[in-house]
Design a protein that fits this description.
single chain, 307 residues, alpha+beta, Beta Polymerase, domain 2, seven-stranded mixed sheet, rod-shaped
Length: 307
């Protein structure tokens, strides 16, 4: 799907076709749309298809006066009610007259821009538009990291009540999400530092300040993801030890119960044999002795805290 938007009278309006100063957003584009944009705006086709690979890492490249910036953006995947946080590449292409974004999936970041949820967005100011987009990406990472922290705390409370595989799998998914975030944020930081040098993108004084703010947010997100990842990893190890300890306790109790139940079984086995000369052949004395021995064994195991 292709959207063409342009700032008119301080608000974004949708256009029928690309024109100078417009923002062209390609969301999961078809080969026909890619070929059309490449021909109309004279854009390198490889630039347009770069972000369609989910494994594409954050980088910056320039060719024929066009600049390609690929950044990893956070993405929430709802899988049958189980929320998983992932990352996917977003390509930003700066041409002489336009700015183009390409993404494999619909995401909240470009949607917020298109729906004018970000103030003072001017599509003709390509550098400013790029930095506003990058700032939105950084703040979205911070938002999702706080959500991950709250979700992990909620899952921990559930684990205190009952040790279930479902909660442990949720913690494992959150830990995996933090690894994805940390890796993507570090790659984004390296790309932004290249932008800050001004070799690939022309920066003005105000733009440098905004880019520095973006870098600060990215560094904060990296630190938060590392902290949360370490905490979650320690929590997983702790709960794994607790589950193992609980299993040992259960096995100890079951073994003690087996020992107690074996006493009357063993005595009844002796008296159930078809032999002569067994002491106290009467039923009630043997039954009483069996109860006394079983009770004594139970009391002994209880005092030793084995039951």
């Amino acid at each position: 799907m292709m959207e063409v938007l342009k700032t008119v009278d301080n608000r974004l309006v949708q256009l029928e076709a690309p024109e100078d100063g417009a923002w062209i957003h390609l969301n999961k584009p078809s080969q026909k749309e890619i070929a059309s944009v490449s021909e109309l705006l004279d854009v390198e086709k490889d630039f347009l298809t770069a972000a369609l690979d989910e494994e594409e890492t954050s980088r910056i490249d320039t060719e024929n006066g066009q600049t390609l910036i690929i950044i990893d953006i956070p993405y929430v995947n709802d899988n049958d009610g189980l929320i998983i946080y992932e990352t996917l590449p977003l390509a930003v292409i700066l041409t002489e007259k336009n700015i183009i974004t390409v993404c494999l999936k619909e995401n909240t970041i470009t949607n917020d821009l298109a729906e004018s949820k970000i103030k003072n967005v001017h599509t003709e100011m390509k550098t400013r538009f790029l930095l506003q987009l990058l700032y939105r990406v950084a703040t979205r990472y911070l938002l999702y990291l706080r959500q991950i922290d709250r979700r992990s705390a909620a899952v921990e409370k559930e684990l205190h009540k009952s040790m279930k595989n479902k909660e442990l799998i949720q913690l494992l998914d959150l830990e995996k999400s933090l690894v994805f975030f940390s890796t993507s944020l570090k790659a984004n930081e390296a790309t932004l530092e290249k932008v800050l040098r001004g070799r690939f993108v022309k920066l003005y004084e105000d733009d440098k300040e905004l880019l520095e703010d973006v870098l600060i947010e990215i560094k904060q997100a990296i630190e938060m993801s590392n902290i949360y990842s370490n905490i979650l990893s320690g929590t997983m190890d702790a709960f794994a030890s607790i589950i193992s300890n609980n299993l040992n306790i259960v096995m100890k109790v079951l073994t003690s119960i087996t020992i107690v139940m074996a006493i009357p079984t063993m005595i009844s086995g002796f008296y159930g044999m078809n032999v002569v000369g067994i002491p106290m052949p009467s039923f009630w004395p043997v039954c009483g002795i069996t109860v006394l021995i079983t009770g004594g064994a139970t009391l002994f195991l209880y005092l030793k805290k084995l039951l």
